[in-house]
Amino acid sequence: MIILGSTGSIGTQALGVIAARREQFRVAGLAAGGANPALLADQVRAFSPDRVAVATDSAAADLRAALGSGAPAISVGAEAVEELAGSPCDVVLNAITGAAGLRPTLATLRAGTTLALANKESLVIGGRLVTEAAAPGQIVPVDSEHSAIAQALRAGRRDEVRRIILTASGGPFRGRRRDELASVTPEQALAHPTWTMGRVITINSATLVNKGLELLEAALLYRVDLDDITVVVHPTSDVHSMVEFSDGSTIAQCSPPDMALPIALALGWPDRVEGAGRPYDWSVPRSWSFEPLDDEAFPAVTLARRAGRAGGIVPAAYNAANEECVDAFCAGRIGFLDIVDTVAAVVAEAIAAPPEPFSVESVLAADGWARTRAHELTGVLR
Questions:
Q1: At CA 36, angle to CA 83 and CA 198, rounded to 5?
Q2: b/e for 244-273, b at 16 or more Cβ within 10 A?
Q3: So what's the architecture of 311-380 in CATH?
């Protein structure tokens, strides 16, 4: 295993899965931004990787100082992470955050290695650059929703699939009207009812932008038309997603909300990892409910459909503008509703722009432009 983004939420949970199964998995390499050198040093000591890649020289210096003479080979910079992703191994888990994950995703696919993909952004913004680089079955999803879809698809042939039902918890503000969301705070938005995640994805779950990204990911990963994916709100996050087949049967994948199960399944795919997740206690009464998504209060999913239909660099603009807006919201520069409103403005400009040849360079240029444009807009919004 090579773990990219090892000190983040998914990376640390993946290493927890591996730590309990040393006879099954071995860590060959780690990559991290370097913001938490003490944790990275602990991971190096615990797993003895052959190679480590970090983002900056200062992070490398901190790591060498923490490890002393026991430090493995340490390389620095985005190119070092990309090179590590393309080096020989069985599985690369890409848990890097944001557009920075695109080049490592492509490097993994070029190397012919199985890609356990937690960095949904690289697929969303890379689009056909990623899907065309991947061999059949080479990308294995880590997101609980897409893992659920992959499991449910085993119940029938692809030509029997009628639609995918993508479940959403609804976040902390489920049931509120749009006008009731104007005054919510970052602290309230970070209080997710069922999952413990990083800052950006938690805010994205509150705005439903995360579900918009997952919609685009599902369409690309499973080659399903955007109109054949339905988002439904399921507050308890027990049913992670469903597949409806042509005969009217709907297959759901269910488990208590815990990322250890989809992470372990991605690392061991197509085999299940015994004891990876907690089963239900069926001696305890429980009930699950489902409700339609309120597109008026939470327009992020509709906006994602618009970006996906436009294609090209537009999904990259959707993702990048949102990340900038999340930072602005957490810094108190804009309100909660301004996040998606600003993303919508940037997406509209991206759609109206003259089309360019689609490439890694144009995608990353669009990412930079969208961040700048969102920053300009959030600088004047109050």
A1: 90
A2: bbeeeeebbbebebbbbbbbbbbbbbeeeb
A3: Orthogonal Bundle (1.10)
CA distances from 237 to 259, 286, 339 (A): 11, 13, 24
pLDDT score, position 3: 98
pTM for this entry: 0.93
My answer on whether omega of the bond before 270 falls inside 30° of 0, hence cis, is: yes
Which letter does DSSP use for residue 288 in this model?
Answer: -
The tens digit of pLDDT for each residue in 72-121 reads 999 999 999 999 999 999 999 999 988 999 999 999 999 999 999 999 99
pLDDT along the chain (382 residues), means of 10: 96 97 97 93 96 95 92 95 97 94 97 97 96 97 97 96 96 94 94 78 93 97 96 96 98 96 97 95 96 97 98 97 95 95 98 94 96 88 40
Is the separation of the CB atoms in 320 and 99 below 8 Å?
yes
CATH of 2-141, one of 3.40.50.720, 3.40.50.150, 3.40.50.740, 1.10.760.10: 3.40.50.720
Give me the numbers of helices (H) and strands (E) for the chain, helices first please. 16, 12
Closest CA to 312 of 365, 351, 369: 351
Phi first, then psi: give them for residue 115, nearest 5 degrees: -105, 110
**CA–CA dist 337, 22 (Å, integer):** 46
Cα separation, 161 vs 158, in Å, equals 5
Q: What is the C-alpha separation between 54 and 20, in angstroms, rounded?
A: 25
- At residue 287, the 3 state secondary structure works out as coil
CA–CA distance, 233 with 205 (Å, rounded to integer): 12
Q: Rounded to the nearest 5 degrees, what angle is found at the Cα of 17, between the Cα atoms of 29 and 15?
A: 30
